[in-house]
Amino acid sequence: MKVRLKTCVEVTVVSLSLRQLYSFVGVLLLFTTVAVTPHTPFFFVLALFCRSHHPSHTHQRLRYFRRVTIEAVERGAEATESSHRGVGETLISTAMVCLILLTGLPGAGKTSLALALKRLVDGATGSDGRIVLEAVVELDAFMPHDGNECCNTVKSAFSPKVWREACVAAREATRQALLRSMRCATDNNGSIRLVVLVDTLPYRSMRATYWKLCKSLATDSNGEGSGKCVRCGMGEWSDRLCCRPTPIAMLVVHLNTPLELCLERNERRRDTESYIPPYVIKGMNENFDCEVAVARLNILGAENSWVLAPRHTNTPWPVLQLKSGDNCASLSPEQLARELLTRIVAPDVARELEEQRATFAAACAHRIAEKKRCRVAAASNDNGCGDWLHQMDLHMRAVVRQYILELKAAGTLPVRAGECASKCRERYLARLRAVLVQRRQEQHGSNSFESYAREILAEFHEHLRTM
Q1: Quick one: the chain helix, strand, coil %, rounded to 5?
Q2: Considering only 220-224, 369-373, 375-379, 414-418, which range has the smallest mean pLDDT?
Q3: What is the pLDDT of residues 150-176, one digit of tens each?
Q4: pLDDT for the residue 413
Q5: How far apart are CA 140 and CA 135, in angstroms?
Q6: What angle do CA 351, 125, 356 make, to 5 degrees?
Q7: Under 8 Å between Cβ of 91 and 350
Q8: Where are the beta strands (DSSP E) in 221-305?
Q9: For 135-151, what is each residue's pLDDT tens digit?
């Protein structure tokens, strides 16, 4: 009995001693956590004092203390790193599709950089495989060739019509590549799927066309107005987990290569059909619509050749430029591509892409809300009669258009015939509107209004023939 009692007393003393040490370390950790890493939760410290102090729980408390201490240190390190990066300067945590417009003068090195990007990403040596290159679209690939299988050069004779057709084809190829990327993107690995377009794009309006394309794909499920998910082909984005919109953004990478270097590279193509007269390149250089001059760039650090240009009021997309155009001559395309991949996932560029994602997401939410509002308004319409005016207006416009075409074909189109026909259409449409309001007030059905509308349309046809 004495031995057993002594053993119990000894165990109790040891437990009490550990409890005191435990409380002291907990208080010390509490003050350290609040003072050093204010973002770290310290509720686990309060839990230490609320747990049972029974001797049988001593080892459990020690294991719990070790686990929460490690978690506190890790969270404190993350909070400290976040405070050094600044607000919003975090890496992309969800999958994103990014369109890169690789712009610059002819001979700036756009194609070489695009090929280096493809080799680097395909080799899985860039950014630990987080970046996937979906496609590289080049405008020159859609220009007609001379038919020689051994030569893949573009015809030197420039045709505006052929160039416009090539631009349309390149835009459609870019759109299809973005759609494929949106179908393949997942929301759990934080990867970035790139679609690179290689084109001069000297004017901001040309780049804005692709910005609108990205916005339409972000706000519409598949860019065709069908309202279906690009992954499963069913329903709205907000209906199922798989149908959530994939973030999409656009980044302009401008190769501000010096004009002299571009002309020198162009001279090497003199014996090829891709040679461009020097005066054309000089004219493009004078009229190139850059977002910001190189001298105004805020250059910080020397570890990367690419810098983020200040945001322009007319350019809602971020722009990456070279610190110095001499880097095109001093660095290889592989080195420029490697630094570009590093720059894309940098905190400042990632923040710009996330802002685009938020803008597109807000537009998508607004579009969905408008669709729901229109559906509710259509459902609340009495017997659908409100849609009759719109249908009748479209029908009468088609009748007027056919009437004008027939007169043109016969060569008997009188002066101001289109204006007279439009005024006639407006008068008959006003009659239909007045009858619709009257029938609604009298609680007549849609069948009676339909029969009256047919009479009005027949009278409208006869009136056009007698004009």
Answers
A1: 60, 10, 30
A2: 220-224
A3: 444 444 456 788 889 999 999 999 999
A4: 82
A5: 15
A6: 20
A7: yes
A8: 248-255
A9: 999 998 888 765 544 44
Tokens of 313: 């009021």
What share of the chain has pLDDT > 90, as a percent? 21
Tell the CATH superfamily of the 96-146+155-369 domain: P-loop containing nucleotide triphosphate hydrolases (3.40.50.300)
pTM to 2 decimal places: 0.59
- How far apart (Å, rounded) are the C-alpha atoms in residues 420 and 161? 36
For the chain, residues classed under CATH 3.40.50.300 are 96-146+155-369
Strand partners, 380: none
Length of the chain in terms of residues written = 467
Q: What are the residues facing 197 on neighbouring strands?
A: 101, 137
Tell me which H or E stretch contains 197.
strand 192-198
Tokens 């009468």 sit at which residue? 396
Instruction: Specify the range with the lowest mean pLDDT, choosing from 120-124, 283-287, 296-300, 318-322.
Output: 296-300
Joined tokens for residue 436: 């619709």
**CA gap 210, 197 in Å, rounded:** 10
Distances (CA, A) of 188 to 74, 95, 130, 232, 242: 21, 7, 12, 18, 12
pLDDT for 260 beyond 90: yes
Q: How confident is the model at residue 236 (pLDDT cuts 50, 70, 90)?
A: very low
pLDDT exceeds 60 at position 222: no
pLDDT at site 11: 37
